[in-house]
Amino acid sequence: MLEQLKKRVYEANMLLPKYGLITFTWGNVSEIDRETGYFAIKPSGVEYENLRPEDMVIVDLEGNIIEGNYRPSSDTATHIELYKKFKTIGGVVHTHSPWATSWAQAGRDIPCYGTTHADYLYGGIPCVRNLTKQELENYEVNTGVLITEYFKDKDYEAMPAVLCKNHGPFTWGKDGHEAVHNAVVLEEVAKMAAHCEMINKNVEPAPQELMDKHYYRKHGANAYYGQK
């Protein structure tokens, strides 16, 4: 089982350079097995071209290394917080993809300007605040705490993405591959939104009824997009 988990997480990690979401080692993907409570994650600082499936590190939800020859990603503690609080997710992605990170560095939510955004992400993509000086002492843990606190009364499945101010994006999904898919979508809509504001500095978000139509035709009980 763990070998298959490591293989899936390796394959998901290799999608990050394929889709232009990372430079050097600036990103990571994890996926959890909810039965065991173990998850696999990319090792810290290992170049993507040198990665192999067996290099993925198996970690439990207390941060203990169960299996692996490397240290896990430096963002492991953030992934742990998301898995603990977001009970239905199965994968987490963090990147420094340039368009989404530009919005994060600007400290801005990404408004929903059109149907591409609305198809996948319900509403504006939030940018959470900076950590305080004291919170930075336990940086990775508190990054996860900050994200999950923001979503405590919100639907994290309808909005599977967040920006951390002056840092970058995190996305999640039912498994590692879906979390990567959402990271690609986030990067594309971040780019579109930036271009949209360049073309029309007075642009307004899409009408709510249009956002609702596009989101719910793909999600929910009455969705009709795609095949059964």
Structure at a glance:
The protein has 228 residues and is of the alpha+beta class.
Your description of this structure?
This protein is an alpha+beta fold and 228 residues long. It has a single domain, classed as L-fuculose-1-phosphate Aldolase, CATH 3.40.225. The chain has seven helices and eight strands. The protein has helices at 2-18, 76-85, 98-106, 115-120, 139-150, 176-199, 208-216; strands spanning 27-33, 38-41, 57-60, 65-67, 91-95, 127-128, 161-164, 168-173. It has an eight-stranded mixed sheet, with helices on both faces. A hairpin with a 4-residue loop joins β3 and β4 (65-67). The model has no long low-confidence stretch (mean pLDDT 97).
Keywords:
single chain; 228 residues; alpha+beta; L-fuculose-1-phosphate Aldolase; 8-stranded mixed sheet; 7 helices; 8 strands; globular
Strand content: 15-25%
- Give the count of helical stretches: 7
Return the CATH class.
Alpha Beta
The H/E string reads: HEEEEHEHHEHEEHH
Supply the CATH superfamily name: Class II aldolase/adducin N-terminal domain
Helix residue percentage: 25-40%
- The rounded distance between the terminal residues' Cα atoms is 29 Å
Biggest sheet, open or closed, and with what strands and sense?
8 strands, mixed
Class inferred from helices and paired strands: alpha+beta
Global Rg: 17 Å
Contiguous runs where pLDDT drops below 50 for at least 5 residues: none
Strand order of the largest sheet: 4-3-2-1-5-8-7-6
Number of strand elements: 8
Total tally of structural domains: 1
Mean pLDDT comes to: 97
Q: According to CATH, what is the topology?
A: L-fuculose-1-phosphate Aldolase
For the record, the CATH architecture stands as: 3-Layer(aba) Sandwich
**Overall form:** globular
